[in-house]
Amino acid sequence: MVSLTATVTGKRQTQRPAGRSIGRPGLAWALPATIFFALFAVVPLVLVAVLSFTTWSGLGSPEYAGFDTWARVFQDPVMIKSLWLSVLLTVLGVVVQTPLSILLGVWAAGPQRNRAVLSAIFFVPLLLSATAVSVLWRALLDPNFGVPSQARWLFGDGNLFGTQTAAIGVLVFVSTWQFTPFHALIYQGATRAIPQVLYQAAQIDGAGTVRQFFHITLPQLRNSIITSMILMIVGGLTTFDTVLILTQGGPGTDTTISAYYMYDKAFKGFDFGAGAAVALMLVVVATVISLVVVRVSGYDKMAGTKEGL
């Protein structure tokens, strides 16, 4: 009979019965998630891919058009412009949100007085939907009744949606206001996981707060920064509701990003084949960029300390 207990270094430790191997869970554990992902992600994506090779107005049956739909989409100058605008807004979002969220997250992880209360206030935008946030800022920035109309010495004529530069600035500002708390939450958790012994050793060596931040905190946050950037890139390329409510692609087509262009073609122009082509293109572009970031950064070679079950 196999003994279930053994004494090692003076302590009693429980042993598993002989013949039972410790391994990963069986495939049955992954079956529910696999089915859910297939039904609500893979199947719709396949249907969108098929629809992108057709012409369909929403009535009747789709008619196969081959690559004519794709050619028609990429021959549209508005489409090419929307790609550059999507990339621009994504880059601006990453550049602005990353340092702000790192600083806010690192600060929120510290022992400062009233930190919990202030952190809760900073994270309020995270609780609101993108639609609610967009409606709120649309009202606040209204050129006739909002803040700009009362401070023309600062905003000029008050119409922040009348020029491309100002409209893009508004989109970047609103996205930063809403999503910086989310990324700060990531950095807050990652900062709290950094071993305190590193900071204690740095203090003994005479390193101040700034040196500790650049030589300990930032290197330890490397994988969190990559994760946050990937989320920003995917979110920036696929954002839609903020543009729909704040600028509606205007003035003219100066803020018509690819996601809004997809909506305009499919639900305003009733060209669902073209809309599906743009949607599929966005999925491919976001996936490729994310994979490139992972490979270039070495994130895919990150070794964890625990595997879990």
TrEMBL record:
Gene Ontology BP, a term: transmembrane transport
Membrane disposition: Multi-pass membrane protein
Region (Disordered): 1-20
Domain ABC transmembrane type-1 span(s) in chain numbering: 83-293
Skewed-composition ranges (Polar residues): 1-16
Subcellular location: Cell membrane
InterPro entries named in the record: ABC_transporter_permease, MetI-like, MetI-like_sf
Keywords from the UniProt entry: Cell membrane, Membrane, Transmembrane, Transmembrane helix, Transport
SUPFAM superfamilies in UniProt: MetI-like
CDD domains: TM_PBP2
Gene Ontology CC entries for this record: plasma membrane
Transmembrane segments: 26-53, 83-109, 116-140, 160-179, 225-246, 272-294
Family: Belongs to the binding-protein-dependent transport system permease family.
Stated name of the protein: Xylobiose ABC transporter membrane protein
Organism: Actinacidiphila glaucinigra
